[in-house]
Design brief:
Helix Hairpins, five-stranded parallel β-sheet, mainly alpha, about 350 residues, 5 strands
Length: about 350
């Protein structure tokens, strides 16, 4: 008298060991999905505790059902399928859908209203990394997952360019599959080759658009600056087209600073990004994607004459190892100077 336990997230999935037990009459609890009932040769509902034949087969998706508990107490074998990784994600999607449809607070939210929550969750996740607490890390990842599900569900309601959580998942699958062909196909398992493939395919994606595609301008300004420099270096952007003020940030030590260092740096970064886009637009008219220094110079309106002579000499000269400047050592007080002594310098 087996009890066949279905996964509520996968109502049509029958455990292999249970197939032979379902060829005759089956007792079904009310939680079983209706789509499965049409395929049973013979069944009847059993929604409450009752006496069943000794060899009765019970089909259910609720282990805690009173009838199921009765049969288990009488020695019934429970036949259940192996768990499928990710099935709880389906429950999470369904829960988010229900809250969006029935929750008064969830119904009012927009992408913009959730911005600060998303940012908070990211920083809390980073704190969890530093704390090294696995339980806290799991919890914070769940909070971040909530944000992904919430934004996808909001997008589903959009009248223009709507998409669903399945579209988000497909975007992930498409991107990762495209960028890791060798590993996924079993062609190789070499780390350096995987990184190379990833970078080459990522660069090929950017070749179809701007070198700035995907650079998030709302990220902290230091990471924004670094990301911009990485992109430009990868596209052979001329170094001297970048203002020196962008590569050095000075924070004044004063009681009342007049300007925000963050805002000043962000403004300079955005100005450079605008110059890059203007050059790309000008090159695009000629059907060109700038990816070498000379092409950049042309569409930036620069020539080799724009490079100061000292800069040209520096480029053409081999690098020199600079000696460490000698300085006064304050570890020990210098001796009192006499008419016959000279100042002592420490290396």
């Amino acid at each position: 008298m087996p009890v066949i336990l279905l996964d509520p997230a996968l109502p049509d999935l029958i455990p292999v060991r249970a197939v032979s037990s379902m060829t005759g009459h089956v007792y079904v609890t009310e939680d079983v999905h209706p789509s499965l009932l049409w395929n049973l040769p013979s069944y009847e509902f059993a929604s409450a505790v009752r006496d069943l034949p000794f060899d009765a087969v019970v089909l259910t998706s609720d282990r805690k059902h009173s009838l199921v508990q009765q049969q288990i107490s009488r020695g019934a074998e429970v036949i259940a399928g192996d768990g499928v990784a990710g099935k709880r994600l389906l429950e999470a999607v369904a829960l988010m859908d229900q809250l969006r449809r029935t929750g008064p607070w969830e119904q009012q939210q927009t992408h913009d209203s959730l911005r600060r929550y998303l940012l908070e969750e990211v920083y809390e996740l980073l704190d969890a990394f530093d704390q090294g607490d696995a339980k806290e890390l799991c919890s914070e990842l769940g909070d971040l997952l909530l944000q992904v599900l919430f934004h996808a569900r909001i997008a589903q309601d959009s009248a223009v360019d709507a998409f669903t959580i399945d579209d988000v998942a497909q975007s992930f699958v498409d991107k990762v599959s495209y960028r890791t062909p060798g590993v996924l196909s079993g062609e190789h398992s070499d780390l350096e080759r995987q990184i190379q493939e990833w970078e080459e395919r990522k660069a090929a994606e950017r070749n179809r658009g701007s070198v700035l595609d995907g650079v998030v301008t709302q990220q902290p300004v230091l990471s924004l600056t670094q990301k911009l420099f990485e992109r430009l270096a990868g596209a052979d952007f001329p170094r001297d087209a970048i203002s020196p003020s962008l590569t050095r940030i000075d924070v004044p030590v004063r009681k009342h600073a007049r300007d925000s260092v963050e805002d000043t740096q962000r403004r300079l970064v955005l100005q450079l990004m605008n110059q890059v886009r203007a050059a790309e637009n000008a090159a695009g008219i000629d059907g060109i994607h700038p990816r070498d220094e000379n092409t950049w110079r042309k569409y930036l309106g620069m020539t080799h004459d724009d490079v100061p002579p000292a800069e040209l000499r520096r480029r053409l000269s081999p690098p020199r190892r600079l000696s460490r400047p000698r300085r006064l050592s304050f570890v020990e007080a210098p001796p009192r100077r006499s008419s016959s002594s000279k100042p002592r310098l420490a290396g």
